[in-house]
Design brief:
single chain; 81 residues; alpha/beta; 4-stranded mixed beta sheet; two-stranded antiparallel ribbon; 6 strands; globular
Length: 81
């Protein structure tokens, strides 16, 4: 995957808000991210456009090497696809 084939959002990750122990999600489907009102990682219209274009979104915390990791395909944050 080329870095131009994915978009990113700088947040930490997507969490399960219904669980007292808030589990982090490694991946979430576009369908779930758009339909679930409790997932507020980015604008629903932007998620819908990314879904229409088959452009995965990576949600991650901005740290020293996080952009490089995301751009090189390393597992970081939550992938919405």
């Amino acid at each position: 995957m080329r870095s131009t084939d994915v978009t990113s959002s700088v947040k930490e990750r997507v969490y399960d808000l219904f669980n007292k122990n808030a589990k982090k999600f490694e991946a979430v489907s576009f369908q779930e991210a758009v339909e679930n009102r409790d997932i507020n990682v980015m604008d629903k219209a932007a998620l819908g456009l990314a879904m229409e274009q088959n452009m995965p979104v990576i949600i991650f915390r901005l740290e020293d090497d996080s952009i490089l990791k995301a751009a090189t395909g390393k597992s970081i944050g939550t992938k919405v696809s």
